[in-house]
Amino acid sequence: MRAWRVRRPGPMDTGPLEQVTTEVPRPGPSELLVAVRACGVCRTDLHVTEGDLPVHRERVTPGHEVVGEVVELGAEAGDEFRVGDRVGIAWLRHTCGVCKYCRRGDENLCPKSRYTGWDADGGYAEFATVPAAFAHPLPGGYSDSELAPLLCAGIIGYRSLLRAELPPGGRLGLYGFGGSAHITAQVALAQGAEVHVMTRGARAASWRWNSAPHPHKARRIRPRRHWTPRSCSLPSVIWCCPRCRRWIAVARWRSPGSTSRISRR
Question: Which residue spans traverse the membrane (predicted)?
Answer without folding.
Answer: none
